[in-house]
Amino acid sequence: MFGTTWIDGPVAIAIGVLFVAFFLLPSLIAFNRGAEHRWLILVINLAFGASVIGWLIALYLATRPPKHSPAPQTV
Q1: Residue 44 CB: number of other CB atoms within 10 A?
Q2: In this structure, are residues 57 and 50 in contact, taking their beta carbons and an 8 Å threshold?
Q3: Full-prediction pTM beyond 0.70?
Q4: At what angle do helices 25-33 and 52-63 cross, to 10 degrees?
């Protein structure tokens, strides 16, 4: 009844894995860099990542430079 197409089997799985990896890219970057608020970035990515705005906000938070505390003063 249904014919075999190019998207069956391994190709469909590969496309699905690539889609999920791209969707979770901000979270993957945040955890790889050890971002300060990586769990918040994951929540934002999962909750609002389907919208372009939410995904871009998560990506921005994941890629912004870390805040460094000032060096201690030696006397």
Answers
A1: 21
A2: no
A3: yes
A4: 10
Alpha-carbon gap, residue 9 to 67, rounded angstroms: 46
- The tens place of each residue's pLDDT in the chain, 75 residues long, gives 566 666 678 888 899 999 999 999 999 999 999 998 999 999 999 999 999 999 999 999 999 987 776 666 776
Q: How far apart are CA 30 and CA 11, in angstroms?
A: 29
Q: Report residue 10 as tokens.
A: 């391994």
Instruction: State the chain's maximal CA–CA distance in angstroms.
Output: 83
44: its two tokens: 């934002």
| Closest CA relative to residue 39, chosen from 54, 27, 55 | 27
